[in-house]
Amino acid sequence: MNIIDNEKTDVQELKDYQMTVKILSRLFKSYQPNFSMMAKGCVFDAKMYFTDNNNELYRYHIEIKSRRQNMEEYDTLPLTVQKYCNIIESCKLGEKPIYISIVNDEEYYIFDLDKLNMNKVTIKNWYINDIEYSANPSKKKIPTMFIPVNQCVNNGLI
User: Fold this and answer.
1) How far apart are CA 119 and CA 116, in angstroms?
2) Using an 8 Å Cβ cutoff, are 108 and 96 in contact?
3) Contacts of 79 (CB under 8 A, 6+ apart)
4) Digit-coded pLDDT (tens) for 11-30
5) Lateral strand order in the sheet of 76-80
6) For the residues 113-138, what does the mean pLDDT come to?
7) Chain-wide mean pLDDT for the chain?
C-alpha cells in the first residue's frame, strides 16, 4: 500500500508558498500584494492580488513547483499537462495563471501561462512519482509539458 507522508507534504507546500510570497512581494513591492495559500485539493497553490496606482485590480492564480535540477544541464522546466489545464480553467475573467518553478531553493522562474508560445513547448509522457512523499513511490507515465526557460517572464536568485 502506498501511504502518503502528509507531514512532509505539508512542510514542503508551506516552504514553497513562503518562498513564493518572498519572491513576488519583492517583485511587486510598490503594490503591496496580498496572498492566500489554497487548501489541499485546490487545482492551484496560491492567489495573489493587488491594486495599482490607477485603482485597477490584478488577480493571479499561482501554481508552485519546487525541484532539484541542475539548470546548467537543462533548458526546460516541466509542468504536467493536467496541472496546466487545471490552472488555466480555474481562472475567471481578469485572473491570470502564473507558474513558478523554484529550483534548488536558490533560483526561480516565473511563467505567464497565458503567454506561452505553445509551438516551443514539448509535450511527452514522463515518468513521475505517482504520489509525492510516499513510503513506497511508484513511477507513472504522465503527459508533461517541457517549457523552455527562455519563455519565463522573470527569473532570479531567492
Assistant:
1) 9
2) no
3) 63, 65, 99, 101, 144, 145, 147
4) 889 999 999 999 999 999 99
5) 76-80, 139-148, 122-129
6) 83
7) 90
Supply the pLDDT for residue 38. Answer: 96
pLDDT per position as a tens digit, 113-124 = 999 999 999 999
Burial 92-111 (b: 16+ CB within 10 A, else e): eeebbbbbbbbbeeeebbbb
Q: What share of the chain is helix, strand, coil (3-state, %, to 5)?
A: 30, 40, 30
Measure the CA–CA gap between 101 and 146, rounded to whole angstroms: 12
Distances 119 to 75, 123, 137, 142, 147 between C-alpha atoms, Å: 16, 10, 33, 20, 10
Q: Which three cell numbers stand for residue 79?
A: 509542468
Pick the closest to residue 24 from 66, 53, 64 (CA basis): 64
Q: Are 79 and 124 in contact (CB under 8 A)?
A: no
